[in-house]
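Local shape tokens:
==================
===
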Amino acid sequence: MSNLWKPAALAAYCNQGRSGSSLVDSGMLGRTATLANAGSWSQIAGHNNRWAINLDGTQYGSIAASSLGYTSNLTVTAWINPTLADISYICGHRNTGGGFVIELGSVNLRMIGYGTAVVSRAVPVVANQWQHMAVRLTSSSVEVFWNGLLVGSASTGMSPSSVGSMRVWAGEGSTGTVARPFLGKGADLCFWNYLADADIAWLANPANNILQVPTGQHGFPLSRLVN
């Protein structure tokens, strides 16, 4: 066996606790987010026991950004199945000291750093199909991944602010105001300190899935074994 240990997520909104009223964090910190409106869940065909929450623009969660515990690095990963009815946000927050939002349009995946870097890349977005996205923020670069591959980067870095409310499956257009909740289906929205290219590629394979801890418990759900 090799690759026995992988970093644990700061927060992992995966397929646990499908109550409809909350996004349960199966990571170590247990940062569960209450949904603004209850949602329904469905299993994703062709994936390894992966479940999705159905998002009609009214289901989103909020947590304190500071509770995630990131400092100069942050990587965000998620499976998305968009309707492409409009621009919608995957996650983000805004405050007087900065913040960011990850935005999906009809052809672009954008990372908007308020007052800092903006990275926009044309990606082969397909409506009503599952695709994997990742954005990696460091103090020296911003990098965008689509279906496991690096599709764009900026040499201007961003130290992500951890002030204010982090919106989950939504964003903020102005401080404290929820904006453009995601439209479609979403799964495995996870926040990490840092993920290497190989880890992002592994997560983008639908046959791979995050190892879960028992429902209601928290631990190291993002460790994995690889033959």
Remarks:
- Residues 1-5, 213-221, 223-227 have pLDDT under 50 and may be disordered.
- Residues 60-203 form a domain with the Jelly Rolls fold (CATH 2.60.120.200).
